[in-house]
Structures are given as C-alpha cells and as structure tokens.
Amino acid sequence: MRALFNPLTGAAAALAVSASMAWANPYEDYAGTTLVVNFPAHPHYNAVMKVLPEFTKETGIRVEVDQLQYLKMRERQTLELTKNKGDYDLIAYVVFSKADYVFADQLENLARFFMNPKLANPRYDAEDLIDGYVQNIGVAGGTKGYLPGKTGSLFGIPFGSETSVLAYRKDIFEKHGLKTPETYDELLDVTCRIPKLEEGMGGMASRAASGHQASHAFLLHLAPLGGRVFDDEWNPIINNDAGVAAANALKTIVDCGPEGSQTFGPAEAAASFSQGKSAMFMDSIAFAAGFEDPAKSKVAGKVGYALHPEGVRRGSQTGGFGIAIPRNAQNKEAAFLLMQWLTSKEGDLKVAMAGGNPSRFSTYQNAELNAKYPYSATFGEALKYADPDWRPIIPTWGKINADIGTTMSKVLTEGLDPQEALDGVAERARAIMDEAGYYTWN
Amino acid sequence: MQTANVNRLTPYLFLAPAAAVLAIALLYPIGYMIYASFLDWNPSQRIGEAEFVGLRNYINLLGDESFRESFAVTLKFAAIVVSLEMFVGVGLALLLDRNIRGMSLLRTLFILPMMIAPIVVGLMWRYMYHPTVGIFNRTLKNLGLEPIPWLSDGDWAFASVIIADVWQWTPFIFILSLAALQSLPQSALEAARIDGATGWQQIWYIKLPLMMPVLVVTCLLRLIDAFKVLEVILVLTNGGPGLSTEILSLRISRTASEFRELGVAAAMSNYLLILLLVLTLGMFLYNKFAETRALRLRAEAEGAAS
Q1: Cβ–Cβ below 8 Å for B152 and A263
Q2: Each residue's pLDDT tens digit, B202-234
Q3: Which of A60, A240, B99, B263 is least surrounded, with the fewest CB atoms within 10 Å of its CB?
Q4: End-to-end alpha-carbon separation of chain B, Å?
C-alpha cells in the first residue's frame, strides 16, 4: 500500500508545490516514517493541524499528533524527556520550559541539522525569522544564560509565538472623542475615564488572578516602564521605582477594570472584552482571531489594534511556543524535516492563513494575509519592539514567578503597599537565587 | 511431622497474596515518597540523579512563610468546614428521622451534591459566584443591595470556598447519622419516653451519646478528606486572592508542577501525613478511652446491682 502510495504522492507534490521539488526529493529516504509529535491545544496549533496533511502528502512522512492543554503538555514532556527512548520526535514547548530542558540537556542543538546538506534547505532563509522570538524562544547559552549572545546556540525555532498589543473599542473611543493611548500616562488616564463615560463598562480587562496570571500582568507593564526583575549580576531589582510604578499601573488598571477583574485569568479577561464589558484589552495577539469571530464575539469589526503603549521605553512581551527535537527522539532527521517545513516561508504562510501566528517577517508583509486578517500589519510592527528579556527564563523562575503572582494578588485585593510587597519579593528571590548558586561568583 | 508444618504454614500462604499486594500498592509508594522527601529532586532528573540533602527540605519548610500560611489556612478550613457540616448534618438527620411521606425521595435528593464530580461542583459554584452574571450578585442587585466580592476578596473567598464544601459534604454526614439513628435500640428510647423525657432530653441524653461512636468515625473521615480537598478550590480560586485559600494539597501540587521541587513537595505531603496520623491516633485513643470507661461503668453498675 505504501509502495503504491509514494510515487503517486511524489508526482502530485512535484506538480503542485514548490519548484525545488521538480528536480529532487530530499524527503525520499524518510517517506513512510511516522513521527510522533506533542503539540498544545492552542489556536496556532489548531491551524497547524489543518496544514499537516499537506506535509504528509508532499513528503510521505506521516505525523501523529498528541495535543494537550499547554500546562499538561509540560508535565507530560518532563516525564517523556527523562526516558532513555522517548516517544516524541518533535515537541512544542512553552517558552519558560526552555531553561529547564536545555539545562537538563534534553534538547538537540540544531547546529548539526542545519550543517547537514542533505537535510538543510538552502532556501530556508533564517534571516527572515522574527529576531525577538528566535532570541527569546530558540537561543540559549548567551548573555545571562538564557539570552542570545556570542556563546549562545539554537535549540528550537519559534512557532506559535506571541507578543502583546493593545486591543480597543474603536466605536467607544470615537463616541467620546478619546485618543488611542500611546504612552502609559495616556493609557492609565483613559482606562479610568471609561467607567465614568460608559455606564457598566470597565476600562481595561487584564489578567489578575493569584499566581502566574497576576505575575504575567505585572511583568507586562514592568518592561515598558523601565524595570527588570534582575540586574546583570542577578541582584533582584524588581523593587526599584520602575517596579513600584508597574505595580501601581496594574492596580490602577484592575481598580478601573470591569467588575470582578481581581480574579480574571486570560480567558475571562478576553471574554469580558469580547462581550463588550471592557473597552480595552492588552494581551497576546493570539486572542485577536477570537475577537473578530462574530460567532464568539459581540465586538467583531469594532476592535482597533495599537502598539503596546510606551513607558520610558517600548517593550512588548514575547511568549508562546517553539518547536524542538528531544535528545531521546527516535526519528530526529525526519523530525527536523518537519520542523523546517513548518517554519519555512511557505509553511509559515500556510499556517498563518489557517489562523496561526506567523514566525516570519515576510509572512506579516504578505498581501493575501493582510487582506484576510487586516490587523497583521500592526502585529508585524509590534514585533519590532518585542522584548526577549521581559522576564528571565531560568530554572528558578517557576518559584519566583509564583511568589510575584501571589504577592501582586495581595496588592490588588488586600491593599498591600506595592513597595513593601516588592521588597518582600526581592528578598525571597535573593534567597532562592542564592540557594541555586547564582551568587557563587560575587 | 511434615504435614504439621505445612498445616501451620497454610494460613500464611493464604495471606501472602494480600500481603504482597499491600506491600506493592501501599508501602512502596509511601516508602518512595519518604525517600524522595530527603532529595533535592527536580522533575527533569531521574530519581537516581537527585542529590541527597537529608532533612533540609523539612527544615526549610518550617521556615517558609508561605508554607506556614498555607498550613494555617488548611487547619482553619478543616476545622470550620467539619464543625459546620457536623452541626448541620446531624441536625438534619435528627429532624428527618421520622416517617414523612416521600422520605426516600427526599433522602436521595439530599445526597445528590455528594455524587457530583468535584470539578463540576467547582465550576458550578464559580458561575454562581460570578461578580456580574452570577446568581448571588444578580439577586443582591435586584434586591437593591451591594454586590459581594465573592471570590475577589481574601475573606469572602475563604467563606465562599467553605460554603461550597459544606454544600457538597453535609449530606455525607447526614446519611451516616441517619443510619446511626435508625439503628439505635428502640428499648432505650421507649424507656426514656415512659420516664417522661422531653424531645431535647431524648436527643441530648440518649440519641447523641448512643450515636457517638459513629459520629466520631464520620468526623474523622470528613477531617481526613477536608485536609486533602483540592479540586473544588483549584477551580474556584486557585488558592487566591493572595494565599487566602491556598490549602496544603494545592500548595503541594504547585510545588511539584510549578516550582518543580519534587523533594519539597514530598516533604510537605509527609507533614500532612503526620498530621493525619496524629488525628487518627487521637480518635483511636479516644475510642479506647470511651470503651474502657463504658466497661468500667458497666462493671460498677453490675457490682452495685448484686
């Protein structure tokens, strides 16, 4: 059956798709392989699922996908990656897993695949990949260990990555003659004016639930307001003026936000915006497709998108997923071919047209994509300011992140003083970092 | 001679499979957990690669403010929830221990909450507590009252979690108490009635003391459960706001998955296990004490009679 199937599909692919196929089939040796991959249940990867059959048709490589909720996915991977022989040939990983997996030596360095002339496509054009994403998600071993730099190398390729933009209600802003906020001062001003202008409407819907969500929301404001969690020698500086300003900004936003926003997770915040209960929403670009879907959203067609406002600098979040090959994978070469195919110019565009988040600048400039999703141009612009260092990606981050999150929740709900709260976070973070050996050289 | 040996061994032979299952299914995991609690172990390592740190996890936990807060929250939660449930559950059982028409239907209705999956209970209450569209706040608003920040204020969130738990688990106590009530010796009650005891006196001097052994066990079961409750709180508040509803089992789960410290999580579980053992032991001793007291009283009574 397979023998019959391959020549047919090979011929069809040669006729139908890229020119490179016309004179050779680099996939020939791997046709018939079945790859097992682990993807999250996420809009981007749902789009990937629609595109994968084309890959199988073109290459003869079959793909079996294990799709899990993204936090479950991480738990599953943690177990899978410690086995001698892993079940997964390719994994999508959440950005903060990079530190843990690379540190435990569980991901393949991609150099040996890109050096292999039989595997690497010379027309891949890696320069076209979005810098901030590659730095944030793909590279490890450079500056501070998790950032790019002269000693860094590539372990994954961004795929389904996200940055933050400001979504706002064009109709409400026009009705009251409000200006789209470009700076944090304007943002905080307008967010508290809206509840007074529109009965029952909150200014901005934000994540704020205790734990990871509150921490995420705080860090979203920390980078543009000039703050960082650590300085270059790993001293916690989260409690400096910029940190306090970020905490106050978050408190203002939540106080002027829709009712009950102290406990919002991302889904609830997005629902508040799409149900018309809030005038603004500043979070990942991944939510945009949902807002424009009239079946799920009451505000489809009424939403404007703007860059993440500027504080003392521009700095929008970087996050989402990358794809990598586990060290214990059993079909590494074929997995690389799939990875390369998905993140190539053609693959990226296909996934984007199906509703995914592009990883390439060229995709964002594509006329067809812009016609289908008019906000793509703004998102492409936002990516120029994507900040790979908006949160540290180090093995101790899980614990510090949780501490920031519960402490911020106390600031938001129990009226804890931001300075006092952040001083406590800094002190505990220092102890955690000390125990993990970050001050060995100081 | 040989047959005698074989005969003596036979009972052990029959016990062996059960003992083996017990050892594998119960002792092995507990031993594993105790061993893990002495390690500095993150989930990316195999257990063999983890560093042995002795009692460090236990000592660090004692100094960890968040752990102590979460421990206090757990104690408070278990104490309030179990007392409320005992009070309401036993009260309901006393009220409904009579022949009312449609009683069996009522009883089934009463125990429904217990049968619902905890995740669903969490979601249900979460929607009811919703700040704008939830039934509670909508009702309050219709009555012209201020809405309550059910889940977004520390104290209210704690109360909300308690309400949900009481709603779900009171029926458990109710059915057990009702069963106990219905198996009470009728002779004692009749004697009391003949002697002219009032309803309250019957409850206070006859029914409750006779139900006591069952109530003690029920209370213990509920306590153990209350210390381990996870899903409802996970869905309702995820431990927030702040740490106000972060009970120990939730903290253990976060330590393992979010902080990636399996050793510390194991040490916490052991603290919880020790606490529960102490409780169980306490109940056991109380039972023993009550039994010997009853025996002594009976002996005295018999002595006086003769």
Answers
A1: yes
A2: 888 889 988 888 898 899 889 989 998 888 998
A3: B99
A4: 52
